[in-house]
Every structure is written in structure tokens, then in C-alpha cells.
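Sample intake sheet
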Amino acid sequence: MNKNKPITSITLLRERIEENYGNFKESTLELDSETLFELSPTIAAVRDVYSLLKENDYICEDDAAYLLRYENPLKIIADAMRNYAEYTDEDFSDMITDFIENDDGEDYITVDLADELRDKYGDDMPIDGAIMCEIVELGRKLFKC
């Protein structure tokens, strides 16, 4: 590996996707067979995205930089892929572009939010758990509990 090679957004995205995939795989290994069966379309989409991004150049620097704003870009792309009933390799780039052009930012956790939650609740608290704590805290404020 060339140590003088600059680190690109694509490289960082691939590293993040690798981490996301490892976490996803670990979480699915703990599930029972019925749940795995129900999740099979999601598992297939995640595996396809992981393979496509790992081995090919379907994403440009700008799109990679955009996706790095999110804690789990693998989930974002896999969710988008599931909306394409049948897709070809050529559709993959279009799918990423469609997500970026239509993103309202409401359905996914940004890196900034994840960092803020980790600072508040610690690294041991899963992000989903921290979000639930935030929801409970907000509910208490709203209903003055």
C-alpha cells in the first residue's frame, strides 16, 4: 500500500461501509431463524451493496463525501436498493444519485448526531438506545413528568 496516497472520501466511505457491514453481520448472527427469514430481503440488499461498493467504482468522490455525513451509509444505500425491485449495475449509481437528490435528512442518523449522543450517553450506549433516552426525556419535558 502506498503511504503517500491521499485519503479520499471514497476510501473513507469504504472503511465506514466495512464497519457498518461488520456490525450488521454481528447483529444478525444473534437472531433466531424466523427473524432471519423475515429479514432476508434486507440481508440480501446489505450484502449486495457491500459487495458492489467494495469491488467497484460506482460512486464518485462527491457522493461518497455526502454519504459520509451519515453514521450508517450502508443502511441508507441498502434501503434505497430495496426500492429497486430489479436493478442492474448501471442502476446502482443512479440509485445513489436519487437518494442524494431527494434526501430530507429525517430518516437516518448523521455522524454529528451520533457523536453528540455518544458525548452525552457514552460509547457503551448503543445509538438506538441513546435516541430512545432522548425521546423519553423530550416526553417528560412536554408532559412535565
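Comment: The chain is about 70% helix and 0% strand. Residues 38 and 44 are 11 Å apart (CA to CA).
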